## 1
Amino acid sequence: MNDKRYPAISIQKKTGKETFLNGGDGLHKTLYDFWAWAFSDLVGNTERGKLAEFIVAMAVGATDGISGSWDSYDLLSPDGIRIEVKASAYLQSWAQKELSQIRFGIRPTHAWDSKENTYDDSLLRQADVYVFCVLKHKNQDTLNPLDLSQWEFFTLSSKALDQAIGNQKSISLNRLISLGAIKSDFDGLSQAIRQQYSMRG
C-alpha cells in the first residue's frame, strides 16, 4: 500500500520553448531565457560540473533523458554502467593569482532513494566507474568549455578507489594516474569507461 500523500514527481524533458505564464502582456520570456541567464558561466565550479556530466553523457549515448538531481550516481549508460562524474579545471571564472590545483571530491555516500525518501545504511561509492574530467586549457583568451579538445578524461573503477584509498574524501590528479586511471580524449572516453567497468572484478 502506498501511504505517501506526495509521491515523487515525474519530470519530463523540456524544450526551452516553454513560456512564463501570467506575467502581464509585456512579459515574453521562455525557459530558454532562464537557462541562458542562470547557466552561462560554464567556467565556474557549479555549471562546469553539470557540463562535464553532459559531456560524459554524450560520450556514452545517455542524453535522451534528463539529469537526475538526487540519484546516487550521475549517469546510467545504455548498457547499465553506473557512472560518477567529477570535474576540475586550471582556470576559474574569478580572478586568480595562479592556476588551480587539480583535485576531486570522492567521498563515499549514503544512497538516497528519492521515491521512498530514505537513505541506505551503507556508506559506499555508489557508481561502478568514476570519470574525472579536467578542463585542461590554460589560456584565458581562448578558453572554451564547449570545445571538447580542451578537456581530458581520467577513468577509474570505484573498486580501484576503494581498495587503494578507502574512505578518503578527495584525491589529486597525480594520485589518480598512479592508481591506473585511463587517460583519454573525448573520442576514447566511452571505451575507457567500458574498459574500467570490465576490470572492476
Note: The longest helix spans residues 45-60.
## 2
Amino acid sequence: MKRTKLIFVIAVSMAVVFIADVFLLNLLIGKNENTAAFWNSNSQGAFNGGNLSESLVALSLSKISEYNSQEDCWLLINNKVYDVTSYINSHPGGRAEIIQGCGKDATNLFDTKGNKGSSHSSTASFLLNFFYIGYLDQEITVSNLENKTSSIKNMTLPQAEDDEDEEKSEDKDGYEDD
C-alpha cells in the first residue's frame, strides 16, 4: 500500500511540474516574438540552429515550375528535384535537350534521352546526384535551399568515365582489355 501511494505521489508531482512548465512556456511565448514564431504555421516548427522563425519552402511542382529557363533550371526526375543550371552548357546532348525539361517533370526526357528511346548512361545518373536538392513535396528551410543551390552552382564536377568508353574497351567475350 505504501508503494502504491509513493508511485501516485510521484506521478501527481510530475504532472504538476509538467503543467507548470507548459504555463511558463506560454507566458514566455507571449512576450517574445522569436519564440512565438516557433509556433507559427509558417515557421519550421523545430529548433534550427537558433533561428526559430525560419520559413520552409515546399519543393512542389508549382515551385519547380518557377525555375524554367537556361538561367535557372530545375528538373524533377523520379520524384527528386535537381538544380542543373550549371550543367546546361556541359550537357553532351546539347543545351536544347536539357532546357526543354526546365521547370517540369523531366523523368520521361531523362529515361528516353529526350524522347529518342534510349536511357541515359549510369554516368549520367551518377552525375545527376551532384545536382540533387530534395524530394518532390519535401519541405526545406530557405537557408538550406540557398546553401544547396549555391554550392551546386559553384562546384566542379568530378571526371567520370563515359559508359560508351567502357563498352568499347571490352572485347567480344565481355572481358576488359588489359
Note: The chain has eight helices and seven strands.
